[in-house]
Amino acid sequence: MLVYMAPLAGLFVMASIFQVLFASDIASLCGALLGGVGGFLVARGLSPRLAARQSWQPVILNVALPPDLLRVDTPSSDMGQ
């Protein structure tokens, strides 16, 4: 979601600011380009930190297989001992 929303928000915010400040469509276009690139860079900078969090990792909620076809291996804490 961050990858999509940060550039989009940057695009709209910077285009609006440039439109208000310079009252020109060309300035608005430049602001949109600047905001989109800036939002992409923000998303690129934040994503490694967010990906390292355990709470942000995907979790499988349901597997559409019968129980006899599914084998689950879970790591246990006493394997290293």
From TrEMBL:
InterPro entries associated with the record: SigmaE_reg_RseC_MucC
Source organism, top-level taxon: Bacteria
Classification via Pfam families: RseC_MucC
PANTHER family: PROTEIN RSEC (PTHR35867)
UniProt protein name: Sigma factor RpoE regulatory protein RseC
Organism name: Klebsiella pneumoniae subsp. pneumoniae
Protein encoded by which gene: rseC_2
